[in-house]
Recover the amino acids of this structure.
């Protein structure tokens, strides 16, 4: 298997010489056997069987910090993928985002093992109670010294809904309306309830905190009611740094309203360029600075000492792909079940009304390639829905610089197929090359994640809607 | 101020010579400026202003582990105390269990800093969704190597209820009925969903986990519905070790059904003896072994090189008591507001119909002592509702042995007035004396918390109701 034709952007010109805007790196991970690469846990270098040991994660955090990454981002799901074959068999057998551990509780331990890197924690605004979520994230902000980000998700799986007290999903757009209301409650709790400096342990005055600087949240929304003061004082960032990755129209609008960083997933620079341009324009329309959101493009990187060795390495990865696991993952994303269809027949022979739309990206491949379901699975299994960059450190650096120049992204969310080997190899081989070229924008110790990613202060900037919730500090 | 007359048990005889059953130690803490001793944060040795830094807690964990403690237990509340004066002013000014951080997220970091000690995490079965709570606690069990306990609370504050989606409290007994249902769901998720060994990363077979060893939880209760399989596999203990501290009749019955350890709080050995006897008898009636529950008595220890120095030290503590803060704490526990009453008048002059029952323990002091509200505050502020043991290491060891002999408790839950000094001093001064006498039952590395506390295996014993939920492993 190779990355599909076109994935490395055939439709744009090479990067101009001298295009060397420094960019950010984030590591895209998940506390589960298979994040985006079903079957790759079988690779001889995989150590992901240790995913349920804390030391695996503290070591990975140090690895990517040493590699100049700014953040380790932890995805999450709250249900099992059960679309493929109408059950969980391929999901369980393949370890496809299952078992999945709670990412939040590992963060302080990873922070204690590092000095500069930030940690992105996924938590569902649909299923967490705002009053408790505010406290958990504030606690993480305290315990990391301001190095935590919250990845806001609304949770898209029916399997999550039915195990969490709902009979079925809240409809998509209503989920985002509820999320808007929850965010307002959270801003009240993080920005408007306990003023910065209110907790001061003044022995002489006998005051732990000034009562006149602690305010009721006074949130009385249609769905969210939080009348009282927050359970704790805000951490160094106040509101934790906010990630969001919604791809729908409503999700994009939510991101323009709230996010400080978003992920772009697209197979070509042209796709990502459109996303970046829409984001910048949308921000301006929304009254925020055009660069108020950091855009990170997802990439999977397979690196070796030479281009040839890297190509061989990728070929070796393909031997381990779990086709059923990949189709279970793809089924979860799309809601389409292709179990029972011939994996080796050209797609046009297995297209039905039910799967036509989900398969359109492949049946209508502009390169003219004829895909099979096995090809789709292999495409998903290495790189997910983003590009796979394969080559020597120089080639990978060239490609990342080219992507940056052609798309205008602020950096990359680097995913690994063989874990943790691909991130270890990136840190060992690619990061030194990026440093040599002066294009790696690294975090500084003693600064919050927001400072390191935005370049501005530790708190929400004045053009963010959460800023208006602030009480005098 | 001294500990109130009678607090050190005037109504029982001295311990018999040779009574040397080894006992367990747990440290009773909370991630907040004031846990049980309002005002003592002002003591010159207090470092509790660092409570919002992770290093404070990892260091404390090492301290008590070095002192031979088996567990560090973290209390929690989900609302502000707002009874005293009808508001939060005394609570905020005094830092009375506010701000309060999320205890769960610090546990893996504390586990990484230690080898033997277990961690008790308080979480509310009323407000946490069982499907997510199961995952969080299983994750903690994995990341601590089986060293986590869950302290099951149903949350008693109206202030928690109204900020967490309810207009007011669920009535007390109904909360426990709901808790029973939630526990059954949790047993299904921890014991019955993913069989031990099902997750095995078999490269040759291409199997992360065996689908036929993963079962739907199939919980369809009146209030709790969890149809699907757990989000993750169980940790080394399966069900985490279960603490519970309910004092009501319904709460006691719940403990007899579910708990593996409980806390006893009583001012005299006679009080605690009754509690222990009732627990042993209740366990037998419930079909469990009479020693199936470990009973730990709460004590506050003030130790110095000599008895005289310890008495002086306690006198110094009294100078820092925060009377309003103590009455805010007591008001939260009892629901009775004594703001506006003369703190220095004999209690009989300030008793009203509203506070009569809550003050009865003091107005009807069998020693005949006449109390004032200030006395009540000072009593609460050093030692909470349990005894204060004051003296040299030898005296403290004598007293702990006497309490153990007279009450039959399995150990002590040691609370600190000046934090972390009192626990550091206990570890430095009392623990060596207990070791010299051979009465300190210490945890062993490489064992789970359940093994270290119960002396049996890592999983729930056969006479625990959760055991029946187990599927073949």
């Amino acid at each position: 298997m190779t990355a599909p034709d076109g994935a490395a952007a055939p439709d744009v010109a090479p990067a101009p010489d001298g295009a060397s805007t420094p960019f950010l790196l984030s590591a895209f991970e998940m506390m589960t056997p298979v994040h985006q690469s079903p079957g790759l846990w079988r690779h001889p270098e995989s150590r992901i069987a240790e995913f349920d040991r804390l030391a695996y994660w503290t070591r990975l955090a140090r690895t990517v910090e040493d590699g100049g990454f700014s953040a380790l981002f932890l995805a999450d799901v709250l249900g099992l993928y059960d679309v493929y074959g109408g059950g969980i068999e391929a999901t369980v057998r393949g370890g496809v985002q299952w078992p999945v551990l709670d990412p939040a509780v590992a963060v302080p331990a990873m922070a204690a093992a590092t000095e500069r890197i930030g940690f992105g924690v996924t938590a569902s605004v649909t299923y967490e109670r705002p009053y408790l979520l505010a406290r958990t994230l504030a606690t993480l902000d305290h315990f990391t010294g301001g190095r935590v980000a919250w990845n806001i998700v609304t949770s898209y799986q029916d399997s999550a809904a039915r195990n969490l007290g709902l009979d079925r999903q809240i409809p998509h757009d209503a989920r985002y309306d509820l999320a808007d209301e929850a965010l307002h409650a959270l801003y009240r709790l993080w920005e408007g309830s306990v003023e910065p400096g209110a907790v001061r342990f003044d022995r002489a005055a006998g005051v732990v905190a000034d009562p006149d600087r602690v305010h009721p949240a006074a949130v009385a929304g249609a769905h969210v009611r939080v009348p009282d003061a927050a359970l704790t004082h805000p951490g160094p960032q106040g509101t934790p740094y906010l990630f969001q990755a919604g791809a729908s129209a409503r999700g994009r609008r939510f991101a323009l309203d709230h996010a400080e960083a978003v992920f772009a997933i697209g197979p070509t620079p042209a796709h990502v360029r459109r996303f970046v341009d829409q984001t910048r324009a949308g921000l301006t329309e929304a009254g925020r600075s055009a660069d108020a959101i950091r855009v990170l493009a997802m990439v999977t990187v397979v690196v070796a000492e030479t281009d040839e060795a890297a190509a061989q390495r990728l070929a070796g990865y393909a031997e381990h792909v779990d086709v059923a696991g990949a189709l279970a993952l793809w089924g979860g994303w799309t809601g389409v079940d292709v179990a029972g269809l011939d994996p080796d027949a050209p797609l046009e022979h297995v297209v039905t009304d039910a799967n036509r739309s989900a398969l359109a990206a492949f049946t209508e491949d502009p390169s003219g390639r004829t895909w099979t379901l096995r090809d789709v699975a292999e495409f998903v299994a290495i790189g997910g829905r983003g590009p796979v960059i394969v080559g020597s450190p120089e080639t990978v650096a060239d490609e990342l610089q080219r992507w940056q120049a052609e798309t205008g992204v602020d950096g990359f969310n680097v995913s690994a197929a063989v874990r943790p080997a691909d991130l270890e190899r990136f840190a060992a081989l690619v990061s030194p090359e990026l440093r040599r070229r002066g294009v790696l924008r690294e975090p500084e110790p003693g600064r919050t994640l927001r400072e390191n990613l935005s370049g501005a202060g530790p708190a929400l900037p004045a053009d963010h809607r959460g800023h208006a919730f602030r009480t005098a500090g």
User: Anything to note?
Assistant: The domain at 24-460 of chain A is CATH 3.20.20.30 (TIM Barrel). Chain A has a mean pLDDT of 92. The first helix of chain A runs from residue 54 to 66. The longest strand of chain A covers residues 294-303.
